[in-house]
Automatic annotation (TrEMBL):
<feature type="region of interest" description="Disordered">
    <location>
        <begin position="1"/>
        <end position="21"/>
    </location>
</feature>
<keyword id="KW-0808">Transferase</keyword>
<keyword id="KW-0548">Nucleotidyltransferase</keyword>
<protein>
    <recommendedName>
        <fullName>Polymerase nucleotidyl transferase domain-containing protein</fullName>
    </recommendedName>
</protein>
<dbReference type="Pfam" id="PF01909">
    <property type="entry name" value="NTP_transf_2"/>
</dbReference>
<keyword id="KW-0067">ATP-binding</keyword>
<keyword id="KW-0547">Nucleotide-binding</keyword>
<keyword id="KW-0479">Metal-binding</keyword>
<comment type="similarity">
    <text>Belongs to the MntA antitoxin family.</text>
</comment>
<dbReference type="InterPro" id="IPR052038">
    <property type="entry name" value="Type-VII_TA_antitoxin"/>
</dbReference>
<keyword id="KW-1277">Toxin-antitoxin system</keyword>
<dbReference type="InterPro" id="IPR002934">
    <property type="entry name" value="Polymerase_NTP_transf_dom"/>
</dbReference>
<feature type="domain" description="Polymerase nucleotidyl transferase">
    <location>
        <begin position="53"/>
        <end position="130"/>
    </location>
</feature>
<feature type="compositionally biased region" description="Low complexity">
    <location>
        <begin position="1"/>
        <end position="16"/>
    </location>
</feature>
<keyword id="KW-0460">Magnesium</keyword>
<dbReference type="InterPro" id="IPR043519">
    <property type="entry name" value="NT_sf"/>
</dbReference>
């Protein structure tokens, strides 16, 4: 077995090489497997609200809010978590996609991350009025 650890900045990269070994994780970030936890999104949302705010603060967005089925209390195991954020100037789709992936990895449920501009005009005012801070 060969094990190398390289420190670059604040991230540590570790690679393990062994025949018949499991997939190698090359970052401190969990490997995305596509597996989701079979639960209502409201469960991890309530358990990890502080973590959601902490992760969102690492991206160029402010004012994370929840809306939709989780807010109304009618989410099911097949529901996603609807979150709304206000992008700061210069925010890119890569930033928003990165935040969405980070939140899905944290929570284990699908996350629909939107900005006010993403909301259909027909529903925008009602969603903005009902959305509550994370």
């Amino acid at each position: 077995m060969l094990r190398d650890a390289v420190t670059t900045g604040t991230a540590t990269t570790t690679a393990t090489h062994e025949s018949h070994a499991a997939p190698v994780q090359l970052t401190d970030r969990p490997i995305r497997t596509g597996r989701r936890v079979n639960m209502k999104p409201s469960v991890p949302f309530e358990q990890k609200r502080q973590d959601i705010r902490r992760i969102a603060s690492r991206f160029p967005v402010v004012n994370p809010r929840v809306f939709g089925s989780v807010l109304h209390g009618d989410d099911t195991e097949g529901s996603d978590l609807d979150l709304l954020v206000d992008p700061l100037p210069g925010t890119t789709l890569f930033d928003l996609g990165g935040l969405q992936v980070a939140l899905e990895d944290l929570l284990g449920v699908p996350v629909d991350l939107l900005t006010p501009g993403d909301l259909p005009p027909k529903f925008r005012s009602s969603v903005l009025a009902e959305a509550l801070p994370v």
